[in-house]
Amino acid sequence: MPGPFPGVDPYVEAEHYWPDFHLTFLNYWREAIGDCLPDDYEVRVGEHVRLVDLEAQENALIRPDVAIVHAPKPGPSTSGGAAILEPETIPTTIYDEDREVFLKIVHRPDRKLITVLELLSPANKIEPGYRDYLSRRNAILWQQVHLVELDLLVGGRRLPMERPLPPGDFFAIIARWEQRPDCQVYSWTVRHRLPKILIPLKAPDPDLSIDLAEVYTIAFDRGRYARSIDYQAPLDLPFHPEDRSWAEESARAFRA
What we know:
Layout: H1 11-14, H2 18-36, E1 41-53, H3 54-57, E2 67-77, E3 83-90, E4 95-107, E5 112-119, H4 129-141, E6 146-151, E7 170-175, E8 184-188, E9 196-199, E10 208-211, H5 212-223, H6 225-228, H7 241-254
Parallel strand pairs: 5-6
Antiparallel strand pairs: 1-4, 2-3, 4-5, 6-7, 7-8, 9-10
Helix pairs in contact: 2-5
């Protein structure tokens, strides 16, 4: 079921469907890439794991209340002269695992990493996840590996660039290793469909042309998000006021 927008539906972000959509989009993005990859390439799913301090994040997850440790305490000795150990109850720190998936294109038969493809999540765009993502990103940019980043989110911080990003709500950034620090930036607004982008492979193989609009439409339809989203709700995202009004009117007309 199509939604009310020609391209990115901002209510996926505003209504907190992004974690589910993130995985759905990556699945169909991978299929679109795999359908046109030469035989000596593979596109695989990778995973980042970040430890999250639950107390610092103020998240509430079930965790054990105590840990038992053994420490010597003064007390009567046994006949052998050894001190009797009494357990002491103290709280322990438990870190949650924040798992983020991405795509990677490898070249066969040596399975050399050629291109990393990232779809930014809300956790990548606020602290402390923003700093962690930039560290991973910087490590890739220092290697002979292409990096493709999609930012389909309005909220949070944008990726750092030497010059301001062009006007737009959403961005695709293609950083070819042999052209860095220069990169190609696609930008578009909530009023427009997603573009076709070029995904670099190993030279001299030609780029892949991937229609992001087609991938997005399949992911949105298969996820049935239009059936679940409350399009009568206000759009609490940092849009320009005119664009927010246009988006809210489009959403309300969709369910009228």
